[in-house]
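Work through this protein:
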Amino acid sequence: MQIEKNKVGLIQFTLKDTDGNLLDASGDTPLDYLHGYNNLIPKLEEELEGKEAGDKFSCTIQAADAYGEVNQSLIQAGIPKAAFQEVENIEVGMKFQVQSGDEMHVVTITEVTDEGVTVDANHELAGVDLVFEVEVTEVREATEEELEHKTTDIPQEGGCCSSGSGCCS
């Protein structure tokens, strides 16, 4: 069976940058995804189209086709430390959720000086070309429930999504 729209692909993968630094990996459990619904980076999904169990491949996806190039307008310097009054020790690498209009964004602290704090709202992999090593371990038919939700990540009965708390999107 080939990977195509409405099929579930299970893949083992490693993700590195072009310098060979490991960014992510599937580990012992393959990643499962519903093909054709943008559940993966679109260019990776294109590479998987037509593959079968046992197929192995490598591909490099340019930053613009992955998480985008770094957008300088999403980097803000000179934020007063007082804006982080609930944080005892502000450090580079800390992440915070901030509300912008109706959307929540994650910002990362990239610099702390006496004058203030610099935050970056770009995705942590923005500007990074991605190198995938992939093995397709299985291809199967999607369930009706997976097709209905357009994902293999189905909320469990009694889980946070069914509680009405709005914690899942």
Residues 94 and 109 are 5 Å apart (CA to CA). Confidence is low (pLDDT under 50) at residues 161-169. DSSP finds two helices and nine strands in the chain. The longest helix spans residues 42-48.
